[in-house]
Amino acid sequence: MYGLDGYEFNQIPPHEGGRNLVYTCVKEGAAAKILRISFLPDRSREDFLAEVEYVRYLFQHRGSVSNVISSRKGNLVEEITYNHHTFFVCLFEKARGKLLVENHYQYREGAPLTEYFYNCGKELGKLHQLSKGYEPVRPRYSFYDKFNAVYIAKWIPDSLSQLKDKLVELLTILDGLDRNKETFGMIHFDYGDGNYSIDFDNGQITVYDFDDSCFGWYIYDLATVWTRGVGWTQFEPDAAKRKTFMDDYFETVLAGYRSETKIDDYMLDKLPFFIRVCLMENVVDAFEVMQNAGEESTCDEELSYLIKCLEDDIPYKGFFHEIYSCEKPFAYEERTI
Q1: Under DSSP, is residue 151 helix (H, G, I), strand (E, B) or coil?
Q2: What is the dihedral of CA 125, 128, 130, 131, to 10 degrees?
Q3: Nearest to residue 188, comparing CAs of 108, 104, 281, 293?
Q4: Pairwise CA distance, residues 285 & 289, whole Å
Q5: Concatenated DSSP letters for 139-198?
Q6: pLDDT score for 292
Q7: 215: which strand partners?
Q8: Which of 98, 111, 207, 325 is buried most, with the most CB atoms less than 10 Å from its CB?
């Protein structure tokens, strides 16, 4: 289908909750590629086409993304049926550089870490600016197609009634927010250092894994960047110092973001709220993954921590609150369901 004769295939180790089988494809004298095979039954051909058409649009408009490669038939998505099971196959260019974790979370030599923070915001801003002009042939689903009261009731155990009420409150507030061209459009929905590579020669970021991309509020992606930035200072025992670091970190991210697109103060004021929305997604996804795997729903220390923050309206993922411990970051006593 793709002319990959002679390539060496190596599976990328899967992570918990992962949806796909992913392989690197390497051949001497040829550019490396990434092969993705999707096998779960909850998405259709149209869903995958909507995703890769968005990726192709971003690439054609100079977004720093791993481009999708057409098959020999000219298709962005190939479909294979075997033993009555359908598999969807996509091929992508391999991003230049490597993951931050592969470099042991050490940024490139001779450059300040603030350069990375700025570039992280800059690339996200560029993607959002391109999304503001995106008119899809096949629209991707919207945040509201998935996150609603029915969806919450389906995955959250009945014994967590207080949590359910809090999540429905969040959805009610979301329903009242602006959804205009400047605030709402295609977002990555999983933007973080696990889904982009860094060229350590120049700091350039290349984004990939748009598997969860959907129509949503741009501020959601920024809230995700905030929640994932806590790792840089999570072992600092002084809450005031953690707060100072996070303020400086996000200010640098925002400067990069604003170099490519604008964001109104009205939406920036919603950052603490959207951090809570990120926690909602994390919690619901955790229960969904457990139940889809046929496992009994349980609450480990990490999940219990997120639930406590949501139930007690503790802002900023509890990072500046007494609930937080630098010795056991983001952990709370396990609760029985």
Answers
A1: helix
A2: 180
A3: 281
A4: 6
A5: PPPBHHHHSSHHHHHHHS-TT-HHHHHHHHHHHHHHHTS--STTTEEEE-SS-STTSEEE
A6: 85
A7: 142, 186
A8: 207
307 dihedral zone (left: phi>0; alpha: psi -120 to 50; beta): alpha
Mean pLDDT by 10 residues, the chain (337 residues): 97 85 97 96 93 98 98 98 96 97 95 98 98 96 92 95 96 94 97 97 98 97 98 98 98 98 96 98 94 91 98 98 98 94
Report how far residue 49's alpha carbon sits from residue 216's, in angstroms, rounded to the nearest whole number.
Answer: 18
Residues 254 and 130: their CA atoms lie apart, in Å, by 17
Per-residue pLDDT at 42: 84
Least Cα distance to 319 among 256, 232, 253, 254 occurs for 232
Q: What is the CA radius of gyration of the chain?
A: 20
Contacts of 21-27 spanning 24+ positions with Cβ under 8 A: 24/94, 25/91, 25/94
Give the pTM: 0.96
Of the candidates 248, 213, 233, 207, the one whose C-alpha atom is nearest the C-alpha of residue 317 is 233
| Per-residue confidence (pLDDT) for residue 162, from 0 to 100 | 97
Q: What value does the mean pLDDT of the chain take?
A: 96
Neighbours of 101 (CB within 10 A): 9
In this structure, what are the phi and psi dihedrals at residue 2, rounded to the nearest 5 degrees? -125, 0
Token pair of 93, please? Answer: 């260019």
Instruction: Take residue 107 and report the two structure tokens written for it.
Output: 């940024």
Give Cα 70 distance to the centre of its chain: 25
